């Protein structure tokens, strides 16, 4: 049973922004707004532009529900501004978002907590260019091996990410990753069953929702597979053994904890053939579209999206807009 503190008069749903994921964010924002309105909550939908601060000033007591994907919404900067303004919001604080958003940093922190992660190398574009692309690509092949995954260190929706099956594919994969960020992450490809686990805290502490199994028709869960209706089959609950499902839930809860996240997160992982969950990445502003995993998990957990979003807003309202005392350790 979730805690039910006072409902705010208005919720400002933020979506859009200027990242490559703007369109997805707008779709997520519309769905969250609709879900909140279904619970009788007044919603104002807003983009992130020069009108935002005056809007918030005109709505004292409002709670912000950020549904911004990509760098502008998930790197923590906007949440730092909301904290500075004393505006309560749903989701993790800025310092935690900065760690979670950078795949190279988040993977290191998660690995130090004893969670299985892929072997990974992070290469800034300047280093890759100045030290010689050919030499470094040969070293990557030796250390990581094929197949491998190449993706931007900071970004989402699988933009700029690609599976590399051999050395001939590596140059274009590196170019594709650098098109979306200055640092590329190269990691071993972990074969197995891909699942994602949502963690939500509706007032009684973080709880893991049923794992969603992801089966893309193309074999790779890329941008097209994520946001094209019918391109991916989602199974919720995932067709995995109960003990493995429990291990996935515990992994997601641990990630949520060690990264200092709050309210809502989604952890993506691979279950290897021997049944071991392996961390891939975490999302502090997961998609809420009609093809996103979180709404599926919410329904499988016996909730409704409207109920969950309303509870998250009430928790944020009760917490208020106070600025945390110090950075996340």
TrEMBL record:
<keyword id="KW-0133">Cell shape</keyword>
<dbReference type="InterPro" id="IPR016185">
    <property type="entry name" value="PreATP-grasp_dom_sf"/>
</dbReference>
<dbReference type="InterPro" id="IPR011127">
    <property type="entry name" value="Dala_Dala_lig_N"/>
</dbReference>
<dbReference type="Pfam" id="PF01820">
    <property type="entry name" value="Dala_Dala_lig_N"/>
</dbReference>
<dbReference type="InterPro" id="IPR011095">
    <property type="entry name" value="Dala_Dala_lig_C"/>
</dbReference>
<protein>
    <recommendedName>
        <fullName>D-alanine--D-alanine ligase</fullName>
        <ecNumber>6.3.2.4</ecNumber>
    </recommendedName>
</protein>
<comment type="pathway">
    <text>Cell wall biogenesis; peptidoglycan biosynthesis.</text>
</comment>
<keyword id="KW-0573">Peptidoglycan synthesis</keyword>
<dbReference type="InterPro" id="IPR011761">
    <property type="entry name" value="ATP-grasp"/>
</dbReference>
<dbReference type="GO" id="GO:0016874">
    <property type="term" value="F:ligase activity"/>
</dbReference>
<comment type="function">
    <text>Cell wall formation.</text>
</comment>
<dbReference type="Pfam" id="PF07478">
    <property type="entry name" value="Dala_Dala_lig_C"/>
</dbReference>
<dbReference type="InterPro" id="IPR013815">
    <property type="entry name" value="ATP_grasp_subdomain_1"/>
</dbReference>
<keyword id="KW-0436">Ligase</keyword>
<comment type="similarity">
    <text>Belongs to the D-alanine--D-alanine ligase family.</text>
</comment>
<keyword id="KW-0961">Cell wall biogenesis/degradation</keyword>
<keyword id="KW-0963">Cytoplasm</keyword>
<keyword id="KW-0067">ATP-binding</keyword>
<dbReference type="InterPro" id="IPR005905">
    <property type="entry name" value="D_ala_D_ala"/>
</dbReference>
<keyword id="KW-0547">Nucleotide-binding</keyword>
<feature type="domain" description="ATP-grasp">
    <location>
        <begin position="107"/>
        <end position="314"/>
    </location>
</feature>
């Amino acid at each position: 049973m979730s805690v039910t503190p006072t409902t705010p008069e208005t919720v400002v749903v933020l979506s859009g922004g200027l990242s490559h994921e703007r369109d997805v964010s707008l779709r997520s924002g519309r769905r969250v707004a609709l879900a909140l309105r279904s619970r009788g909550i007044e919603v104002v939908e807003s983009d992130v532009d020069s009108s935002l601060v005056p809007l918030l000033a005109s709505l004292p007591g409002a709670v912000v529900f950020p549904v911004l994907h990509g760098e502008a919404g998930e790197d923590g900067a906007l949440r730092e501004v909301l904290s500075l303004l004393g505006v309560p919001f749903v989701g993790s604080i800025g310092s935690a978002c900065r760690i979670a958003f950078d795949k190279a940093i988040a993977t290191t922190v998660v690995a130090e907590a004893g969670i299985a992660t892929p072997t990974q190398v992070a290469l800034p574009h300047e280093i890759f260019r100045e030290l010689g692309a050919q030499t470094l690509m040969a070293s990557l092949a030796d250390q990581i091996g094929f197949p491998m995954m190449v993706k931007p260190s900071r970004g989402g929706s699988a933009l700029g990410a690609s599976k590399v099956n051999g050395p001939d594919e590596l140059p274009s994969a590196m170019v594709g990753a650098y098109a979306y960020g200055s640092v590329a992450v190269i990691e071993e490809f972990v074969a197995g069953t891909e699942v994602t686990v949502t963690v939500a805290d509706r007032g009684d502490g973080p709880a893991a929702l049923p794992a969603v199994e992801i089966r893309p028709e193309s074999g790779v869960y890329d941008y097209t597979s994520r946001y094209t209706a019918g391109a991916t089959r989602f199974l919720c609950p995932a067709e995995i053994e109960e003990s493995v499902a429990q291990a996935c839930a515990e992994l997601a809860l641990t990630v949520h904890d060690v990264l200092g996240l709050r309210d809502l997160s989604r952890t993506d992982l691979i279950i290897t053939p021997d049944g071991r969950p392996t961390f891939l990445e975490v999302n502090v502003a997961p998609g809420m579209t009609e093809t996103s995993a979180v709404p599926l998990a919410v329904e499988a957990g016996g909730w409704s999206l409207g109920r969950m979003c309303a509870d998250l807003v009430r928790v944020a309202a009760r917490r208020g807009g106070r600025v945390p005392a110090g950075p996340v350790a």
